[in-house]
Structure formats: C-alpha cells, structure tokens
Design a protein that fits this description.
By secondary structure, the chain is an alpha+beta fold. Helix content is 17%, strand content 49%. The protein is built from four helices and 18 strands. The strands form four sheets. Strands 4, 5, 7, 8 and 9 form a five-stranded antiparallel β-sheet that branches. Strand 7 (161-174) and strand 8 (177-180) form a beta hairpin. Helix 1 runs antiparallel to helix 2 (27-47). The radius of gyration is 33 Å and the shape is elongated. The chain starts with a helix and ends with a strand.
Length: 323
C-alpha cells in the first residue's frame, strides 16, 4: 500500500516535468489536478504504516474454545466437517491493525482435504495498538465418498488424536488495500475424541391415528418425529419392527430409513393395517380407556457413510397412545 501511494506521487511529479503542452489553456486545470493528486498522496503516505517496520501480529491458539462442531458424512446433509478455531490476536505495533483473514493450506494428519477448505478460514479482527482481540473462525472441510481424510476422521471418532495444521499467512487490510504477510505455520495442534453419534429421539406425533376403515379392516398411520440431538450426522435405519397395542404384538412393520444430519429432525409416516376382529379384541381387553397403549420395538443402525456403522440393540423405540 505504501509503495502504491509513493508511485502515485512519483507519477504526479513526473507529469509536472514534461514539456509544456501546445495548448496553454489546459495548464491551470492540469496544475490544479496535480496539486490535488499530490495532496491525496501525502494523505495516504501519512495514514498508511510503513510495512518495512511492521511487526506481524501473534496468533495464540485457544484449545478450550476450539474443536469439532459438526460432522455430516458424505451423502448426509451438507456432507462436511466443521471445526471451531479460536485465537487471541496480539498486535505489537503502536497503531491498530485489521486482520482480514487467514490464507492457509489445511492438513489433517498428512492429508490436505480439499482446496475449498482455504476459503473457509474467513473472519477478521480489528486489533488496537498493543492490544489483544479474540478471533473466532470456522473451518469447513467438504467430505466426498473417496476423500482420504475420512480415515483420519474415523480415527478421531474412535478416540485417537487428530493432527491439524494450518500452513499459510495472515492477510492485513489497510482501508481498501491488502497486504499478505510471510508464510508460516499458523497452527499445529492435536484434537482428541471420542465423538460418538447420539441415537435419535423418537416421539409419537399428534397426527397419528385412523386413516381408513372398512368392514374387514382399519388402516392406521404412525407419525413419528425423529430428532438427532448430537453433532454427528448419520443415516438412521430401523429394522425388525414389531408393533404392540395394549401390550399385545399386532403387526410386523416394514423397515424404514431417514437421513438425520447433526442437530436435525425428520418426520416419518408408517402405515399399518389391522383386521377388525383383532381390533375388537384389543378394545375389549382395555375397556373405557382413551385409545390403546402403543409401543414400537426394533433394532436400529446408525450408518456414517464412508466411516462406520453402529448397531444398537433391539429395544422400545417409541411409546404412546393410539386414538
């Protein structure tokens, strides 16, 4: 930025040393323009620090405020791993600095996940003279089915340490001008797990109940809300489902699956049919009650495509009352 301002000043002075223009009428306006340009250059030179004496800001990593925020495996949700990276920025200079962003190559173990990770380290901080400011960044790593970084993330889920490095440089901003500092290791740390997916929470929605009725049978529909409360997304599969009404097994339901990204929920609709005779028997066994007690049993798989599959034991998935 300083070199640019000085070049403008040199160009302005060079114009004044040229031979007289054949048209002398233009000289007053030209001189006025040159004076304004010189005034502007002087202002720029007075406002911009001399980068030759600039001391680069120091980035102190804050591990307590950093870590894995969210992981959605390939094909589930956004298909990305998101890390929080927090730093304290110290400015050793007697003037304030604007840290615009970090330009860095991301290394997970010895793997560089994707060039797109470079654009994810955006976010800045305005640091006063000899001051300190907090810098919070989000590192987003796109995850593809054949990405070599998946094996590194799988180790992190298992509880092993994950080496994370950022090799690059800070970019400072002076008004509309930017200055890249010399390359360096911006971060070298180890993240530790385990980070385990949390089983979904199931709830019976009020819309569950009778849909069709005939002389021979009645068709009901279960409306379930499945919520993934954790930071790990997965593909949820429920199999070997058994429906019980009033404590009695009445139907084997088909398997179903749903993608549940981290922190998301999905609405599932499961129809089933009951013969009239069976329904009458159940109502006789529970006279005078408002509907029938319901429980759904089955086994659940949590699939993290490209990473692993977790099998949960068979148990009660949801319970409630069926009107």
């Amino acid at each position: 930025g300083v070199r640019l301002a000085r070049r403008l000043c040199d160009d302005a002075v060079a114009l004044t040393n040229r031979r007289a223009d054949p048209n002398p009428v233009d000289w007053p306006m030209r001189r006025l323009a040159l004076l304004l340009a010189l005034s502007l250059c002087a202002t720029l030179l007075g406002c911009l620090p001399d980068l030759r004496s600039l001391e680069p800001p120091r980035l102190d990593y804050l591990p307590a405020a950093s870590g894995l925020l969210r992981l959605d495996p390939p094909g589930v949700g956004a298909g990305e791993a998101v890390f929080a990276l927090a730093f304290e920025v110290y400015n050793p200079n007697p003037y304030r600095l604007r840290l615009e962003r970090l330009e860095a190559e991301v290394l997970i173990g010895e793997v560089s996940p994707a060039p797109a990770a470079r654009s994810a380290l955006t976010g800045g901080a305005l640091v006063g003279a000899l001051g300190r400011e907090r810098l919070a960044l989000e590192l987003r790593l796109p995850l593809l089915p054949d990405s070599p970084v998946l094996s590194e993330l799988n180790a992190l889920l298992s509880g092993e340490a994950l080496d994370l490095r950022l090799e690059g440089f800070p970019v400072l901003a002076f008004g509309q001008l930017e200055q890249a500092l010399s390359p360096r290791t911006l971060l070298a740390t180890r993240l530790r797990g385990p980070f385990l997916p949390e089983p979904p929470r199931l709830a019976l929605e009020p819309g569950s109940g009778l849909r069709e009725a005939s002389a021979e049978s009645a068709v009901y529909e279960l409306v379930l809300r499945a919520e993934n409360p954790g930071p790990i997304g997965y593909r949820w599969r429920a199999e070997a489902l058994e429906l019980r009404l009033a404590g009695e097994p009445v139907a084997a339901l088909p398997s179903f699956a749903a993608d549940l990204p981290a922190g998301s929920s999905a609405l599932l609709r499961i129809p089933f049919e009951l013969p009239r005779a069976a329904l009458a028997t159940l109502e006789t066994a529970a006279p005078g009650q408002n509907g029938l007690s319901l429980s759904l049993l089955g086994g659940v798989d949590l699939e993290l495509p490209g990473l692993r599959v977790l099998e949960l034991p068979v148990g009660v998935l949801v319970s409630g009352r069926l009107e």
